[in-house]
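not sure who needs this but someone in the group chat was asking about 4Fe-4S binding protein from Hymenobacter jejuensis so here u go. i didnt clean anything up, its just raw.
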Amino acid sequence: MSPTAAPDLALPQPPVREADATEKATLAVVALGLLALLVATSDANHDRARLLFYGALTLVSGGTLLWSWHKFGRGESGVKQNNLWLRASTSRGAIAWVTGLVLTGFYVVLYWFPQYLENLIRAADPLSQALRHKPADQWFVYGTFYTLAVLLMGGRALWKYRHSRYQVIRTLSVMFFQLGFAFILPGVLLFFQQPEYYFTYFWPLKYDYLFPNSVDYLVKDGQALGVFMVFWGVVMSFLATPVLTYFYGKRWYCSWVCGCGGLAETAGDPYRHLSDKRRVAWRWEVRIIYTVLALIILLTAMLWVVRYVPGGPLAGVADGLYRFYGFFIGSVFSGVIGVGFYPLMGSRVWCRFGCPMAAYLGLLQKHFSRFRITTNGGQCISCGNCSNVCEMGIDVKQYAQRGEPIIRASCVGCGMCSTACPRGVLNLENGPRAGRYTGSQLIHADSLRLLS
């Protein structure tokens, strides 16, 4: 090099690690399982389709768990976000777009063209009969896939974040509630000819549980269990939710119980860095999510008014709003976009922009809760790991650099920012509201430190 030439100061980028033979083999097993599932979908022979269906679930489950252990369970634990922006699957590349198209296509078929899933539905009949004592439908097949995704990718999360006790317990919690309360318990209720009920979903997320027709259905003939279900829904929506949010923030639900959050934290974990951190994204978030909350409050109120004042123009307006909300919010937004856009917009698209429960909890968290994330600006090295792993689009680094507590309505308290911090700058705390906005009073006795 000439003595007058400027030295090359660019730091070399680490190469993307090629998958070794074992990793390729485990991924091939998963791919073979998905292929078998596709064949089962188009196979008119029910016996063969059933064999392919359960064989596919076995291959996908075994391959995913082996791949997760090989990739995350053998070496040193920790938050490994290496090369995510260099891989086509996690940087909105070709693989990400294909994945997104497949997911959105599946949801479109599930909601509006279930006849194309008839072979899979019939293949799932034995499992449905054993659990629910009734034939399968597209929602049972979907629930099976959904639960399996949370469990398998939950296993991946347990290996990946095994160094953090908080993340391990939190992951086990969402796996438990999805399997026990969102899959097995509703099936058992149907088995004993009781109403299918999801005890972990409340109004306004499960909006129809407090609609007049649903209440009538649950309390028909004065069944004690149905009355309890209505009572449970009212208490959880209007009493337990504010109390729990006051003490723990919205994390008690969004990151520990909710099935939507459970899928985002497990199956959506590879995409958490894709959430838009720009201020313009935050503005759209506020506009959309509180509009959805206002719509469901208005719809619920209108339906109850129509219940006691039947007829008139309000009934037609309420019916139109009900259809609009069910189609655009309940189906398109929460399903097609909410999960299908994981590979393009991150894992919490629905939770961040559309979920009325998240909006309700967020208002309580921001204005009435003891919960905050405290920061120690003197220790921050501005590495950006915290912002990179925030799936809710919060630029955590900006708060950490200034030593300001993070009190945001959108924060779901997943704790990944603290888990990813190499300096222990961030801590989730439930201290008293005094000093909550200044960060000057840190109640370490009540704090929940995330780094073990």
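also The first strand starts at residue 372 and ends at 375. if thats useful
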